[in-house]
Amino acid sequence: MFVKAEKLSKIYRIGKNEIRALNEVSFELERGKIYTVIGPSGSGKTTLFNILGGLDRAEEGRIFVDGKEITAMDQKKLSDYRRDYVGFVFQFYNLINGLTVYENVLSSAALSKNPLDVDMVLEMMDVYSEKNKFPFELSGGQQQRVAIARAVVKNPAMILCDEPTGALDYESSKLVLKLLEDVNKRFGTTILIITHNLAISKMADATLRLRSGRLVEFSENPQKISAQEVSW
Amino acid sequence: MLIKKIPLRVMKREFLQFFSIIMLIAIASMTYTLFAVSMEDIDVNYKMFIKDYVQEDGYFITSQNIDKKLLKEKFGVELEERLFYEVQENGITLRIFSISDRINKPYIEAGKKPQDGEVLLDPSFFKAHQYHTNDSITILNKKFTVSGIGYLPDYIYIIKNDQDILPDPKHFGVVLMTENDMKKLFPVLPVHYYSYKGRLNNIEYFKSFINSNWHLLKFVEKSENPRIIYTEMKLENAKRMTLPLSLFIILVSSFILFIVMRRIINTMHAEIGTLYSMGYTQKDVFRVFMRFPLYIWLTGSILGILLGYFEAYPLSEFYRSYFTLPKLKNVLPWQHIFVALALPAVFIFISGYLALKNFFKLTIVQMLHGVDEIKFGKLPDIKFFDRFEFQTKIMLKYGYRHFARELVLAVGIIFSTILMMYGMTAKDSIVVAIERTYEKNFKYEYLYLLNSVSTHPEIKLTNQAEPYNVKSFDIEGRKLSIMIYGIKKDSQMIKLYDNKSNEIPISNKLVISRPLANKLGLKEGDKIHIKSKFTDKKYTLKVYKIADLPVGNSGYMDLESFNKIFGYSREEYIGIFSKEKLSLSNNLIFESYSKSELVNTIKASAGDLSKTIEVMALVAAILALLIVYVLSTLTVNENKKNIGILKMLGYREGSIFKMMLGFNNFSFLAGFIIGVPLSKITMDSLMNAATKDIDFAMMLDVSTKSIFSTFAVLFFAFVVSRFLVRRKMAKVMPVEVLREQVD
After folding, report:
1. How many Å apart are CA B310 and CA A86, to the nearest integer?
2. Which candidate, A3, A68, A30, A9, places its Cα nearest to that of A210?
3. Which residue of B has its CA nearest to A48?
4. Best-predicted range by mean pLDDT among B16-20, B28-32, B150-154, B516-520?
5. DSSP string of A80-143?
6. Which SUPFAM superfamilies does this chain map to (chain A) (predicted)?
């Protein structure tokens, strides 16, 4: 099993109030598959994304990725974990405005032990012609494709996407989903997409449904469709 | 590491903002380098000059020829007589000295040591009258060839009279000629002038010994000689100003940098969080962001050092000609250049580090999420503001929210006000000193100091002239002296007034000048303990009144009482105040000058200060402009979203400007209002510190005109910077703000 989560819990304390963002969540993910995480606002999707990505720590429970327990890692090891295993795609792209498209992707490739060719990835994402532009010179769809290129170029085992189509129009969203699917197929990358959009889960191998911090459903999708076919 | 490119790119994007901070640092480094390098140059050359050319430890004038051998044996001091005579022709006074061999040796800069028929001129006089080597100069109808320029170690600050404030090379010069020529030109020299070198264990005994044997007319120790101590005082003053001035600018810039860094980090929070999520470590990110202070420091301080270093040369030359000091050695003070480089580094890196450190306390999730929302919860919710109409309420809330920023703005304005007022007041005070002292208080036109105290039966005084007596005393417990004048009871030549402009009658009681009273902390009715400069005799006098004279360590009483107290006979006197020029024999006169000449001298010299004031005004205005611009731009940049939304809602630009930046007006006004009295306090303490142990005192007056001029210049700078910021605000388009949020 590529990812194994055991009774993950995360509690936020605001004043005297406690909010249990994740409550004893357990699941297993296989390598090379696409997963979606769905649920209403406040269900714990982003908390799960953060913990799985090594950006935040769980209060209780354990996570193993490729046999390594990330919940037991110190900051330095977590840094190495993010560097070697994970690529991130955010809703608002989070590109570095001071770097060009090419440099943004290169800044990620430079950290990897086994990076892909930057030009090839830019071609794949159809933003090669924009490689010398700065992020603010691109449309949102183009920026998100650069963000995916930046995640992919490290050749990570897993890409975590937090609402990757949340800020995009329909056409751009479809293109982004198609590219994620291509990456999954071509490089065998495990992809986990957090989304509000139920339609997207149709292209996933399995879907995790969260509600009030609890995993209420883990459903496999035997009738998975291609990203091209997804519509809403 | 590729991400190290980020800071330069951001700086390029926010060019004006970073350029302003760089300029602030450059001004700070330039100020330090400029003054430190030129001061060091002057200081080293000054010390070398007075050592190598044997500056005197004092001089004295007697009416009879002394026995040098006897004095040397008895007191162990080196003595050298200099022949001395003063010539007044065509409104120009030439003080002529013979060339010394052992004490106060001249340094000859251009030309050669004069032979018979040749003279050396002091550099300021030489320059002011555009002389060249081998030109001829006529003195008492005899032609001399100018053999070169001569610097004297005891005439560094070339003023004619001890009480003069500024040199006037157009009307006064020092001439050096051979003893032979002196004797030919002036067969009868009225007095004998001696310089001495060596430590006197009992100076009082030395003076009284000379006085009892050869009749001492004047005795001036080096520490009392304004031609020497003014130089040291002014150099010390400039040195004292250098560090605080630079430090202040560095501190303000560092604080602004701190605010700017925080803003940059806040706007880049998600990018930094992303760098972490990609696997960059805190060390990597820290190294990248510390490049902001690194670039600002390097560019600003190197630019400042270069500007300061190249400007230091003309400044040194200016000081050199102002003090008439020769250049004996080229000085390159590496230690000061290092300080100019290192000083801003310390503050800039600390402020950069602090700005980053706080941010790095956040978790990666908080970074990705953004700190704006976190900060938003801390926004002031003050009920007090709710009583105002909406726009004023928002303006007050912005002011309150950015209180530290407003404080920096106010402090910047205070500093600029002090800087400019300092220059204006220096000029005003001199003008006031002339008007009040020489026009209101001193009614005579000519002043004569005679060679001896006597009843002078050979002089017939008309009703246009009045006799006076004067004696110099040391003030016990202080390294200060006082000149006490005995004048006629109903004197028409000297008029003294109190601070309410009521005339003070001249009586048997002592009236002292206000600067002296301030320096000694004396009030009316207090006692002053004094000791004769020539004998050991001590006196205690009660201060009856304090006269509102702006300059001088002086005291006044009626002539009869003066003579009685200090042991002279009733009718004796040493000088004459006169409304008309007197035809007195040269043998009788020790010193003389005309009031109009003196007044013109000072007024002309005060005019020269205008250039200094212009520079100070420019620096003050630039500082104010940069500080206001950077801080206001920050607010605009931070509030682009709000500005866009307010524009979208239909608010006019003027209203938005008022809401976001209206509070700046209060900070500017507060800064100026606090700055004016503070500048008076600062200047007084600076003047007191500089003149603590020397015989110079002057009242510094802040005039309404200088307050208005300072306000006008600073307000102009304020308006310009606001105009630039408003232009920036006009460029914020609502549509762009929306586009930035959602595609």
Report:
1. 56
2. A9
3. B365
4. B150-154
5. HHHHHHEEEE-TT----TTS-HHHHHHHHHTT-SSPPPHHHHHHHTT-GGGTTS-GGGS-HHHH
6. P-loop containing nucleoside triphosphate hydrolases (SSF52540)
B363 touches chain A (CB under 8 A): yes
Interface test with B, best of A13, A94, A95, A146 (most B CBs within 10 A): A94
A contacts of B10 (beta carbons < 8 Å) = 97-98
Alpha-carbon dihedral angle through residues B272, B277, B279, B285, given to the nearest 10 degrees: 10
For the segment B152-172, the average pLDDT, to the nearest whole number, is 83
A19 CB within 8 Å of a chain B CB? no
| DSSP assignment string, B467-520 | EEEEEEEEETTTTEEEEEEEE-TT-SSB--B-TTSPBPPP-SSEEEEHHHHHHH
Identity of the amino acid at B171: H
Contact: A98, B6; criterion CB under 8 Å: yes
Cα of A222 to nearest chain B Cα, Å: 33
Contact B517, B525 (CB under 8 A): no
Report the alpha-carbon distance of residue A164 to residue A174 in Å, rounded: 11
Q: pLDDT tens digits, residue range B490-513?
A: 899 999 998 888 999 999 999 998
Rg over alpha carbons for chain A, rounded to the nearest Å, is 17
List beta partners, residue B219: B60
| B742 in contact with chain A, both atoms CB, cutoff 8 A | yes
- Tell me the C-alpha distance between B469 and B484, whole Å: 8
Residue B587 near chain A (CB below 8 Å): no
Q: Sheet holding B192-197: strands in order across?
A: B78-82, B192-197, B58-62, B216-221
Q: What is the rounded distance in angstroms from the CA atom of residue B121 to the CA atom of residue B102?
A: 19
Identify the bridge partners of residue A209 per DSSP, sorted by sequence position: A38, A217
pLDDT in tens, B605-662: 555 556 666 677 777 888 888 888 888 888 888 788 788 877 777 778 888 888 889 9
Query: What pTM did the predictor assign?
Result: 0.69
The helix/strand/coil state of B196 is strand
Residue B372 has pLDDT above 50, yes or no: no
User: B189 at the A interface (CB within 8 A)?
Assistant: no
Cβ atoms of residues B352 and B261 within 8 Å: yes
φ, ψ of residue B190 to 5 degrees: the values are -70, -30
Query: A172–B275: do the CB atoms touch at under 8 Å?
Result: no
Strands B216-221, B58-62: pairing kind? antiparallel
Do B578 and B444 form a contact (C-beta atoms < 8 A)? yes
Counting Cα atoms < 13 Å in the Cβ hemisphere of B6 gives 25
SS3 content of chain B, % helix, strand, coil (to 5): 55, 20, 25
The set of residues, in sequence order, having a beta carbon less than 8 Å from that of B303 and lying 6+ positions away, is B22, B26, B29, B30
CATH architecture observed for domain A1-220: 3-Layer(aba) Sandwich (3.40)
Residue B592: C-alpha distances to residues B121, B255, B470, B567 (Å): 22, 57, 14, 25
Predicted confidence (pLDDT) per residue in B690-709, tens digit: 555 555 555 666 778 888 98
| End-to-end Cα distance, chain B | 31
Out of A96, A143, A150, the one facing B6 most closely (by C-beta) is A96
